[in-house]
Design a protein that fits this description.
The structure is a homodimer.
Chain A (H helix, E strand, L loop, with lengths): L16 E2 L2 E6 L1 H23 L1 H8 L13 H15 L5 H10 L8 H5 L8 H4 L1 H19 L3 H16 L14 H12 L2 H13 L37 H18 L2 H17 L31 H18 L2 H15 L17 E2 L23 H11 L6 E4 L2 E4 L4 E6 L2 E7 L6 E8 L4 E8 L7 E2 L2 E2 L4 E8 L5 E5 L5 E3 L11 E6 L2 E6 L20 E5 L7 E5 L2 E5 L11 E2 L2 E2 L2
Parallel strand pairs in A: 5-9
Antiparallel strand pairs in A: 1-4, 2-6, 3-20, 4-5, 6-7, 7-8, 8-13, 9-12, 10-11, 10-13, 14-15, 15-16, 15-21, 16-19, 16-20, 17-18, 18-19
Helix pairs in contact in A: 1-3, 1-15, 2-3, 2-4, 3-7, 3-15, 7-8, 7-9, 9-10, 9-11, 10-11, 11-12, 11-13, 13-14
Keywords (chains A, B): Hydrolase
GO molecular function, one term (chains A, B): hydrolase activity
Protein name (chains A, B): Glycoside hydrolase family 127 protein
Chain lengths: 592, 592
């Protein structure tokens, strides 16, 4: 089995399943994964410098001193460990040993709270104790799947048992403020087969929405708002995501996992309804979600300002995880379209092309004269690390696990969702993919091994891909092109996805982008950045004539991007901005 | 002398001076001031319920217990006391006695810090100790000017002497985080003649801008950003206001006071330059400033979202105070235009027509389906009070002192800046003003008393007032119409300000209002509110045809407003919104 996150059990009710083998071999994503691999050791250095590793060592009795930072800091270590596991590039044993030694005999583990001698679970709305547990479980599952080493899994099991003894219908009434434990418990159930973890996940999913994750008593800030914790409306009743965006999408992901594993179609319908609402009213053109700086929150419907987009990197990663589960559940290509959108335009932009710097906040418009105020302000550019460093290691683990999202398998077929130079296998059906995507839309799938009978090779035709062909025959956009036949090794299927530059417009209820256009080509959203424009223009004064021809040209710029030209304007892929110093940039351009 | 704030000394270099008498007698503002008078006793009840008065009583030894809330809470009491002083409607002695008793022997006074036994001045970036002192001084000056009672002034003097002993070139190096002390010290100097206070104000103005008001050490939040405290760039070098909006405008007000009293033209030029920049790039159509929720801050240039306008009530009040001082300094009618804009469209909207409820945040667009999150969210509507209750008493003191802003005097004339049913006097030149403004543009000034020689009656012709006449003769908009002659009692001067509804557009660099229009009539900015529209429309789907005729009609609605109609749309004055329950509302309307 391909080591990957989110592997439903055999009993889970899903349409598609992860493939047994997937490797990125060449091309665009191979380069990005190589850069990510180079970033991973830097991640360890930064965790060391920030004190995260020190906290665990102190808790383990390997060092002494005071704990550094908030009680969510262990989670950064776990996310980084997960990245290492998927990437397979670093030894893990020393760190896992420290984590194991830091764990209390009763299974509880949170280095800051232990070092400070605080009572566990007493300020769950803000302590992130179960959030850290969730990331520990995900790292443990990753280590087990990727390396077979179950040392960390034993730590996770011990902690999960402690949680199952502590929480639940007859347990503590207060719930964790920051979801992730729900999905993580389902993953631990998948890995261990222990149904207690699935039951606890289901309990956490259904117990939420009654104010029990919310800070008790009066608080005039977000801490007093149940919506901040996705705790205002029970998940089965909710029509929309609201409040803190990362919490909301992580929770929706966990609810989807529970729905899949318990065959709960009511719950699945609820999260799909919320997804559709988000897609239509609360998602930026790049796929980013979470409009508001204040509360790091989803805004009201159609509140999608480019300049003040909060668009937290972790929220985009959460949507990717959610969309992947919905794709497995339904087989609907729109979820794979979403994953493509996010990978290229909401997750990749968060990391620099070189030097492993990260955006926490992903603005869609850096204004002329923009000034940075707080540490995570994108006006400062990408940074190596943050005081609250949730995003960098989240990017690392996501890029390290990228192959898992390329394809799925069914009993008699292979579905290719993302196009990259890669080698894929579902059972005895193995295919090599060759492509220069996202720069060119030609994708060649060469059969390496095939079963004796008829099988189906399904190729996602993105919603944006008009006039696509498979083996020169027209296929329908927004669906899968399905080639069903007996394959022989060496057989080729050639997909052509024409990539003319195209104009995007927003919903007319979005104020700040009304009368504007954004430009995309293939899967990439483009942006104007100051260095590419005529000298001395103010970026905010530029207009794009929607009737003018847009031409594409492959260049050596920024690692070999295709640039677009429209009259005097030059556009680069949004993901590549802010890699030549800090300059004004905008995705949405006033038409005229 | 008319009891009023901001009374420059005889030595101050100003063009205009406060009048010796000003009363609002009839009409629009008389009604609003009566409502404010009715609100003032409720303010005391709310201060009592919130614990502000309790804190002072505990510090005074009149009660026991723990202090409630943050150390800025005394300031709410002082602002309320200032309102009472200007209004003259309530006895003050008991409260002043408590405040006097709470003061330490050395002059220091902050009830929360004293009750909690904290060391003064040790966390000035966030303690608001000098902020509270400033509001105390303003209240003391108001009480002295309005009632002649100097009991509170003695408290202020004792505290100011303590400050002068503690701070200054050879004193503590850390500065207060939240300006207001600068202007308040100048006012105390004006009232006492003690130049030490002016010198200390000047010191505070010039010492800022070098990181000394900023929280020491690293902090990733706004606390670590010098701009948050107007502490990044020295005032003489700054081109723009930035950071926390209330802090910035209060500081600019204090700098202007210092410039006026020290004849510092370089400083005056600097604040005028910053004012012009704010006016052009950082001010909403209503006059509101401070775009950002995050950090309650000015945004980047042209960052002016209607839906997420923070537009704190206190920031608008600060701009009014600043503009008043610039008006006195320069005699430029644009500053009086600004005051008109703010009074009707940025300060008045913050208070309900009945029941004394207040907005802290003044949105320009309540979206369909808007949800409140934090206490001050305007989606909840106006509130009686807030956990951080800076705004309500700030509105109270501003409306109570409104007559002070109506007119100014010079050696040989009277300048009328704001039109209200009123009686005004500068020296021996007394005039009664009769008008139905802002509903009607006819203003009749009747001379009640005049000196023997020639004097000048100057009438502000707002920038918006095309085709204005004085005694049927055309006059120029954006200036004063000056009638210079020998006046006799009974003489009338009739100003006509035609008020056709007019379309406003924003700077093209403001994304969220590009392609939109706002409607104004006379001094009032109008808004669409859901209850006035056709049934079942979604407010965000409405368009306004800029070529369609807009008609005005006086009604009995909402206290007797003039409503505007354009095709199917009905508009009400923005200040009157959210007085019929909570409904969608917008000021900027997509044109089309």
């Amino acid at each position: 089995m391909q080591p990957s996150p989110a592997v439903p059990t055999a009993a889970a009710v899903v349409t598609l399943r992860p493939v047994s083998e997937a490797q990125v071999t060449t091309g665009f994503w191979a380069d990005r994964m190589a850069a990510n691999r180079a970033a991973i050791p830097l991640g360890r250095e930064r965790l060391e410098a920030a004190g995260n590793l020190g906290n665990l060592r102190i808790a383990a009795g390997e060092a002494s001193g005071d704990a550094q930072g908030a009680s969510f800091r262990d989670s950064d270590v776990y996310k980084w460990l997960e990245a290492v596991a998927w990437d397979g590039s670093q030894p893990l044993a020393d760190l896992i040993g420290t984590i194991s030694a830091a764990q209390r005999d009763d299974g509880y583990l949170n280095s800051a709270i232990q070092v400070r001698g605080e009572e566990p679970y007493t300020h769950l709305w803000n302590s992130h104790e179960l959030y850290c547990a969730g990331h520990l479980f995900q790292a443990a599952v990753a280590a087990t799947r990727a390396t077979g080493d179950t040392t960390l899994l034993q730590v996770a099991i011990k902690f999960a048992d402690h949680l199952a003894d502590t929480f639940g219908p007859s347990g503590r009434t207060q719930l964790e403020g920051h979801p992730v434990i729900e999905s993580a418990l389902v993953e631990l159930y998948r890995e261990t087969g222990n149904r207690r973890y699935l039951d606890l996940a289901k309990y956490f999913v259904d117990a939420r929405g009654h104010g029990r994750a919310t800070k008790p008593g009066f608080d005039p800030s977000h801490y007093g708002d149940p919506a901040h914790y996705s705790d205002r409306v029970p998940v089965r009743d909710a029509d929309t995501l609201e409040g803190h965006a990362v919490r909301a999408v992580y929770f929706a992901t966990g609810a989807t996992d529970v729905a899949i594993e318990t065959n709960d179609l009511e719950l699945l319908d609820a999260v799909r309804r919320q997804y559709d609402n988000m897609r239509q009213r609360k998602q930026h053109v790049t796929g980013a979600v979470g409009s508001r700086w204040d509360g790091e929150a989803f805004g009201d419907d159609y509140e999608l300002p480019p300049d003040r987009a909060y668009a937290e990197t972790c929220a985009a990663i959460g949507v990717l995880q959610w969309a992947w589960r919905l794709l497995l559940a339904t087989g609907d290509s729109s979820y794979a379209d979403q994953i493509e959108l996010l990978l290229y335009n909401a997750i990749l932009p968060a990391v620099s092309l070189e030097d492993a710097d990260y955006f926490y906040v992903n603005t869609l418009h850096r204004r002329t004269g923009a000034r940075g105020d707080v540490q995570r302000a994108p006006a400062y550019g990408r940074r190596p690390w943050f005081n609250c460093a949730c995003c960098p290691a989240n990017v690392m683990r996501t890029l390290a696990s990228l192959p898992a999202y390329l394809a799925t398998g069914t009993a008699d077929g292979l579905q290719i969702h993302q196009y990259a130079g890669s080698t894929l296998r579902a059972g005895s059906f193995a295919v090599d993919v060759d492509t220069d995507y996202p720069w060119d839309g030609r994708v060649t799938a060469t059969v390496r091994e095939a079963p004796a009978g008829e099988v189906e090779l399904a190729l996602r035709i993105p919603e944006w891909a008009s006039d696509a062909t498979v083996d020169d025959k027209p296929v329908t956009a927004g669906d899968y092109a399905r080639v069903r036949r007996v394959f022989q090794p060496g057989d080729q299927v050639v997909l052509q996805l024409p990539m003319p530059p195209r104009l995007l417009v927003s919903d007319d209820r979005v104020d700040s982008t009304r009368g504007c256009v954004a430009i995309a080509r293939g899967p990439l959203v483009y942006a104007l950045e100051q260095p590419d424009q005529q000298p001395d223009v103010v970026l905010e004064d530029l207009r794009l004539d929607p009737t003018a021809e847009i031409t594409a040209k492959r260049t050596d710029l920024l690692g070999g991007i295709t640039v677009l030209h429209s009259a005097d304007l030059t556009l680069i892929p949004y993901y590549a901005w802010a890699n030549r110093g800090l300059h004004p940039m905008r995705v949405w351009i006033p038409a005229g």
